[in-house]
């Protein structure tokens, strides 16, 4: 009996020892266990967050911090440019003040010389002989015509023709302007000779290599030039009025308008764009290549080798002086090649922004860029790509159904541009291209475009050079949103495809519209739709451009579906 009790006691002691050891092991395991997540971060306000959501939150915070650093850098650059501008302004005013005493000294010396010459002529008869040998007095200014230079000498003048002047400015056949001959003796010269009688001032000749204007801009410029020529031919500008105008101009410049002219910089200036692209690091893209050599010569029916690929140049489809666009092919692919004398890859940046803005834009052609020392080459590659103006060639003008489909593609393009905070600002038919399968429209030139994410100070149309003609015509208010410029360009493009004519603007009681679609007479539903189309685009002030574009797209699809 005693043995059984002793055995039972031993068993109970051993079981208690075993339980105690198990409890100690569990406590030690619990102490060593570590959670793989943070409960405070995953549980907020009764919501459970996943690891992906936390990672996305940290990513957005890091991006916001990088954006703030970029904005701070831009503020510093802006402040530095403002300081440099002030220094230049003070330097300009200082030079003008230094030039004023010299001008007064020259005028006083000329008056003294004239008085002494008159006194000598009255007292000494030999002065009469010398005065007879002087050339006859000329007018204050006369219009200089190169074709009539032989007849410019007064009748009876036996003196030999003057030598060719060094600083003559002659107009070439493709330039416009007036060339004036003005008496302007050199500083410090008290007399007047035949060599320094004239200086030539051209009236802003316009070279054919300047930027091509839109049809509306060409009409406005021609009207303004005719008005200025009529004012000059009327002879209402006397030398006294010229002096008064010059004094008013000097007073205006000295009163502070110089700062206005200098501060109002073109947002599309290559130097401005170059500074902006430093923030985006465009050159790190695998599709952007740097070539340490000058821009190669591109010609029709020649082979252009870039990046190990040989491109056969078929034809030049656009020539704007500063850049040209060529149609080319390589293997079984077709492409449009833009050769630009500007070395800033702004086209590559803007097109890449548009292509990556939405999955719907992934069907746009592939783009690659090659940077050279004095320019860049941008290549748009697609299975089939054509210029927009090819629609007007071949078998007659495009049908209204085809124009309607292209208008829908244009509406989608502009809508996607604006939703991505991009502004093209120079939509014209000859810089647009389209590709098949799928059918998309895109610009091949972005030199006038604006990235409103980087250029947040561009708010109104008065800051855009391409909108100045529309402002002068009264079509756009200076303070109107900058997006409205694209709507006017869209209207011009569709009007040309639809009517084969440039758009002529008229204004009636309901606002602006195209002249060919301004009637009130009864018409079919197609003509009525196009009337609403142009009125909506040309009178969109105060409306959201995205809503206007969406409504027009629905109206066209409802009729031409």
Automatic annotation (TrEMBL):
Q: Where is this region: Disordered?
A: 97-167
Q: Where is the composition biased (Polar residues)?
A: 139-150
Q: Which InterPro entries match?
A: Bub1/Mad3
Q: Which ranges are annotated Low complexity under compositional bias?
A: 99-136
One Gene Ontology molecular-function label: protein kinase activity
What does UniProt give as GO cellular component? nucleus
One GO-annotated biological process of the protein = meiotic sister chromatid cohesion, centromeric
Name the record gives this protein: BUB1 mitotic checkpoint serine/threonine kinase Ba
